[in-house]
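Late entry, evening session. Most of the bench is empty. Finally got around to the prediction I had been postponing all week. Sequence below, unchanged from the version circulated by S.P.
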Amino acid sequence: IDIFKYVIYGVAAAFFVYGILLMVEGFFTTGAIKDLYGDFKITTCGRCVSAWFIMLTYIFMLAWLGVTAFTSLPVYMYFNLWTICRNATVVDGANLCLDLRQYGIVTIGEEKKVCTSSESFIKMCDSNELNMTFHLFIVALAGAGAAVIAMVHYLMVLSANWAYVKDACRMQKYEDIKSKEEQELHDIHSTRSKERLNAYT
């Protein structure tokens, strides 16, 4: 449990740093840089970094989808257990059982049932740890779902920024070519004007 606890701390710290990196990368690929420096400049490395963050965020989103699926199983199992505990107190003398094989905890060949007739089951239903664990699993599922939504939001923002950077690079190339052509036309016009002036004199 201690190792698992430190793994959770490490993942939380890593995603905090990753969120800061995404914020910095998003700042430098939007119009804020144009307001600061008066011109839009982006390098090939900047475009590669944007594409890298998109790919990395997509991989993290798939990982968090797996975490969400993994945390939904204990919630489902504890909900069934809580329902059996509640029904056992309502219906006196009913022998309700929970078959652990349906959750994949034990193999199909083993018959592991938890029934309300046993004294350990009654103690488990009356304990506060069952409700606390159930609520903690719900919080874990909600947190994993929120992380998936955040990853989808990050992917949308990063894709929009990458498209913005790509269009801005194309526009920058177009402006450079246009200014070169205008400069060449201006040079040709000034050269012809000088030639005419020399021929006249």
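Two things to note before I forget:
The mean pLDDT is 76.
The first strand starts at residue 97 and ends at 99.
Will write this up properly tomorrow.
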